[in-house]
Amino acid sequence: MEKVDPRSDSLIFVVDDDPVVTSLVSNRLEANGYRVRSFAYAEDCIPALHEMPDLIVLDYYFLKEDTVPMNGMEAYDEITRLAPGIPVIMLSAQEKGEVVLEFARKGIADYVIKDTDLIDNLQMAVKEILER
Question: pTM to 2 decimals?
Fold first, then answer.
């Protein structure tokens, strides 16, 4: 019997308001065999939680014209309230120790800085989390 690649059954939500980041991350994850759904804002992602993704890659800071969208920490709180078993990787340009510490206190699975190593670091984090 042929072994099924576990990645082909893994659904990952990518939530980021930057279409370039969303495209880069989604394309790389799909190239690695994962199923991906992309959302620009957490408010768009939360109603889709009934699909029970295996992992959520969530931006920390969102910008939206004419409104103040939910930030990544608020979104994380709502995600864990509605679907507590879904691991979340937070993406951010934030390198402040207190912000990263707050992520850790809340139980975020991993934190990846948006820098030139974003894709490589994210790939490693995704693989590690989904293979637990």
Answer: 0.89
